[in-house]
Specification:
Blueprint (H helix, E strand, L loop, with lengths): L1 H31 L5 H9 L2 H23 L3 H9 L6 H16 L6
Helix pairs in contact: 1-2, 1-3, 1-5
């Protein structure tokens, strides 16, 4: 389970950073910057990061689901953790709650 826990933490950070970048940088620049400007063109080209986020998110879902099954999380908590990768910046808060919960319930992972 320790490998799943480490994989979850790494994937949560990657998904969180990608989602934050896409939602808070690429998206506004693509649609709110003046048409044809360098910023708008950067937002347009940076939008490819949505695809990367999607692929990493799929791996995040699988790893999170496996961790949830091994750690015997409740269904509502599992759904919250899975949905956190879809809401910008929330995943960082949820990841902290997961770390606290896993370390409290499985102290052997605290190292």
């Amino acid at each position: 389970m320790s490998r799943l826990f480490v994989a979850y933490r790494v994937l949560a950070m990657i998904v969180g950073v990608l989602l934050a970048f896409c939602a808070l940088v690429a998206l506004p620049l693509k649609y709110l910057a003046p048409e044809g400007s360098d910023l708008q063109q950067f937002g347009e080209s940076a939008s490819i990061m949505w695809v990367l986020h999607g692929w990493v998110f799929m791996v995040y879902v699988v790893v999170t689901f496996l961790l949830a099954r091994r750690a015997r999380w409740t269904v509502p908590f599992t759904v919250l953790v899975l949905a956190a990768g879809l809401i910008p910046l929330i995943i960082f808060w949820v990841e902290r709650r997961v770390v606290e919960r896993v370390r409290a319930e499985h102290p052997e992972l605290a190292a």
